[in-house]
Amino acid sequence: MSSRRSRSRQSGGSRISDDQINDLVSKLQQLLAELRHRRSDKASAARVLQETCNYIRSLHKEVDDLSERLSELLETTDVSSAQAAVIRSLLTQ
Amino acid sequence: MENVSQDQAKNNQIRWRSAAEQKTYSSKLVEALRHVRRSSPPDNVSSRGRAVREKADKVLAIAAKGRMRWSRAILKKRLKLRLSNHKKAKDRSKLAAAGNSRRKNLKIEVPKKKRLRPLQRRVRVLGRLVPGCRKLSLPNLLEEVTDYIAALEMQVRAMATLTELLTGANAVAGNVAESSNRLEISRQLEHPPQS
């Protein structure tokens, strides 16, 4: 019984068939199109996966940028407990 | 074996897009960020930004209520990091040497037996972008991806709104009062005068 942990890259040990990939990727394509409000019926599987990766990366970048901006604002704003309460009330309107 | 049923997945999507979820997230984030400032702040911009990012991700992971793998992975990662930092303080060189060399071996190791087809390569890349989903099978990965994307979009909306609010608050504070007055006001807010 050899341990496959360090060598095996596929989970579950089974090879992914082309049909499986195409089927699942078309599902993702639909969901992605819904999320991005765009009709992209003709995109290839590779294209869809690429788009998804790019999209996640761009979301990560936005969060990073917003985090940096927020950290600057928090430094200068000196959010006291009262201000935090005000902000919270504005957010829960 | 699926994490959630199709209906549950749809409900999750709806939830991430709701205004209520965003507001809950925003207020929890504000609370968490306040505590970040209290604890000893690092001195440069990028590490402060990173601290905010980590908090934002943690609050997001908690908002998922353990439903999805990516959220559990985020929380586990933070726990591991904290534990490993504690160990490092005790025995730095030993852990660094062992840990780093082991990690290096795994990273450099490339399977020579076959090259991945471009499609499977992209699937691999996608798996690396979603926390904790590196070795997931494609169906489960897609499930995680769609939920993760919806969550990220909410995170962006919430943080953008928060940024606007704070920017607005800054502007108002600057216009209404001189800096010395502002200091006085905030001091009073923190420690209301006892009458």
Verbal overview:
The complex is a heterodimer of chains A (93) and B (195). Chain A has helices spanning 18-36, 45-77, 81-91. Chain A has 93 residues and is an all-alpha fold. Chain A has one domain. The radius of gyration of chain A is 22 Å and the shape is elongated. The N and C termini of chain A lie far apart (61 Å). Residues 2-13 of chain A have low confidence and may be disordered. Chain B is 78% helix and 0% strand. Chain B has 195 residues and is mostly helical. In chain B, helix 2 crosses helix 7 (138-176) and helix 3 (45-63) packs across helix 4 (69-90). The radius of gyration of chain B is 22 Å and the shape is globular. Chains A and B meet through helix 1, helix 2 and helix 3 of A and helix 2, helix 3, helix 6, helix 7 and helix 8 of B. Chain B: Pfam families: IBH1_N (PF26576). Chain B: It is found in: Nucleus. Chain B: One of its GO terms (molecular function) is transcription cis-regulatory region binding. Chain B: One of its GO terms (biological process) is regulation of DNA-templated transcription. Chain B: Residues 103-152 form the BHLH domain. Chain A: GO terms for molecular function: protein dimerization activity.
List its salient traits.
heterodimer, A: mainly alpha, disordered N terminus, protein dimerization activity (chain B), transcription (chain B), nucleus (chain B), bHLH_AtIBH1-like (chain B)
